[in-house]
Specification:
Number of strands of chain A: 0
Largest sheet of chain A: none
Shape of chain A: globular
Number of helices of chain A: 10
Largest interface: A-B, 87 and 87 residues
Oligomer: homodimer
Low-confidence stretches of chain A: 1-32
Structural class of chain A: mainly alpha
Mean pLDDT of chain A: 86
Helix content of chain A: 40-55%
Distance between the termini of chain A: 25 Å
Chain lengths: 261, 261
Amino acid sequence: MKCNEAYTRRVFLRNTGLFAATAGITLAASGLPKFATPAAAKSYDKWPYTKLNMDEVANIAYENYMDLFCTSTVLKGIFTPLANSVGSPYKTFPVESMKWAHGGIAGWGTVCGTLVGASTAIGFITGDTDTTEAMSNDLMFYYANTVLPGFKPAKGKWAEIKNTTKAGTPMCHISVGRWMQEEGVAFLSNERGERCARVAASIAAKTAEMLNAWDAAGGKYTPVNTPLANVMTNGITSQNNCTDCHGKDVPKPIMAAGKKD
Amino acid sequence: MKCNEAYTRRVFLRNTGLFAATAGITLAASGLPKFATPAAAKSYDKWPYTKLNMDEVANIAYENYMDLFCTSTVLKGIFTPLANSVGSPYKTFPVESMKWAHGGIAGWGTVCGTLVGASTAIGFITGDTDTTEAMSNDLMFYYANTVLPGFKPAKGKWAEIKNTTKAGTPMCHISVGRWMQEEGVAFLSNERGERCARVAASIAAKTAEMLNAWDAAGGKYTPVNTPLANVMTNGITSQNNCTDCHGKDVPKPIMAAGKKD
């Protein structure tokens, strides 16, 4: 669901300048208020990268899900082939150290842990804050708007499942809840575990695809979606499913710095 | 706000066995369904630790907020003193690589980025998945139930602000939205930046306090809150503010594995 359209259009028009300022990969735009103009994109030592086989990445993420859960198994899927081809630092990085992000951070149902694992890997590999932000943002959009899981093993490792669903959000709680309702199973079921293992495989593979494209383009990434568009359009960090929680009473945030709307 | 009480009690009683199974730090409990009984807690090489000065950690996190945003500045606050006392791997870790988690992951308003930075640091330092999960879970509770920011500099670096608020959730969107409403300012304002810089300082200091206690106890951590209690009580990854989004119509998830409720 989209935010109240009239409201969104009004806010959008008022912020067209700000919005346009983010219409590239450069986030340190001159049209932003002082506080939102931090130093330009930061580059740092990136980890060596070699092209990934998407099927291999997906299979490793899937096979290790029950042992590692969503975040760490995505890291395992991406880092294992790179540990083989490149070695350190992939070889020594403890993918288990990020297990806490499973289930929307220790089971709190916020962001799907697969996206935390994927973005962490992207951050190490691209060596650039703005590139990572753009890819992470595109992954959030992809997760919210794609029927998942796309990955389907020849035979379910823990259970056979029937349904795939579109979450409409990157939130674990809503994503898994919508699927549980379709499938008619409990959270603490092998079916739900199987589903999340397949989602982890799907997101790991998508991340590998994005990284391969970035690598093939000589370390350049063309964003599919405008970074920070949600913030600029809605006047607050947000998704695009306002009515999911607010119903018809979507609040009108203050849009101009320091002034009541 | 709490979930519908009658509902919660009913579910809670039905799941007392499961709930009790998590009433310690050991998450791999025998009372859980097969899928939820992964291998026991994983230990891995932990990063060397020396006691942190909470004020120093808070000040570094605060000072670097505008440059790094919430996640990376919490990492900077914790890692800078450790880089000085211990050296590698703190010295070479690119804290900027996690900047993408700001604003609830690239501005999507999900989990507050300070909690991602804090949990990432905890994961490297404790070297144990269950200890990290318990500390991350306690931080989520702390963030949701504490009036923030607690950190107050002698003079605001970017603005002076008046209000402190309790989010009731670890979600960036709701946390910052409630504060913006109290303060009467826009998201893209220096006041909001100042507030989030102080929240980052507060969470970084709390993390240092928890790590110091863990270290002083010889690497043992006593959870304040039961890990995975939200999952066990609500039958899905979740918070405890169900009515915030669901109103009076809090859905009843299927609780028994493989069966409709």
